[in-house]
Design goal:
Layout: E1 2-7, H1 13-23, E2 28-34, E3 37-42, H2 47-58, E4 63-68, H3 73-87, E5 93-95, E6 101-104, H4 106-112, H5 124-127, H6 132-140, E7 144-151, E8 156-162
Antiparallel strand pairs: 1-3, 1-4, 2-3, 5-6, 7-8
InterPro entries: ACT-like_dom_sf (IPR045865), ACT_dom (IPR002912), PAS (IPR000014), PAS-like_dom_sf (IPR035965), PAS_fold (IPR013767)
Protein name: PAS domain S-box-containing protein
Domain ACT: 2-74
Length: 171
């Protein structure tokens, strides 16, 4: 079950909500806290358990609304990103700061003749050794536009670009 709890901010509100879960002997699987809103996910439960939980949360002082939701915010964002990447006709390969592939769209599968299941979580240079310059570009923080690479597995030339997204909090 996923719940959205809206509230007027005060000290201890998260504790009060967590206490209700503890009182009902329920585990919070995930939690996302925003401004005046908390999203909580629990294990699936029967309606007999849901209703008293929702009622008890709604009775906490300064709670303004309690509603069940379909997706947690991070799940909704992931679905939106997937929809965008699936619609793009250019191959998109995203890597993290360690050089491991985190996103790989259907166009990239088609262009590179390599399935998503074989690349996600693996170092880019293990799968595509020809892309070493892209990892360097990303690590240095510099853009690379239309750099030609040769991929031996497909005996093909590609134009690739990189656009590093830097963590503004990391130094």
């Amino acid at each position: 079950m996923r719940i959205k709890v809206s509230y007027i901010d005060r000290v201890g509100i998260v504790f009060d909500i967590a206490y209700i879960f503890m009182h009902h002997q329920l585990n919070i699987v995930s939690m996302e806290v925003g401004i005046n809103v908390i999203f909580l996910e629990t294990e699936p439960m029967s309606i007999e358990l849901e209703q008293p939980l929702l009622r008890d949360i709604a009775q906490i002082s300064d709670i303004t609304a309690v509603a069940q939701i379909e997706l947690m915010p991070h799940e909704e964002k992931a679905e939106q990103l997937k929809a965008v990447l699936d619609a793009v006709t250019d191959g998109v390969v995203a890597i993290d700061s360690h050089g491991c592939i985190t996103q790989y769209n259907p166009a990239a599968e088609k262009i590179m003749h390599t399935s998503t299941v074989h690349v996600i979580g693996k170092p880019l240079t293990d799968i595509f050794p020809c892309c070493l310059s892209l990892v360097d570009s990303i690590q240095s923080g510099s853009k690379s536009i239309n750099r030609e690479i040769f991929f031996e597995q497909t005996n093909s030339h590609y134009l690739v670009s990189s656009h590093p997204i830097m963590d503004r909090y990391k130094k």
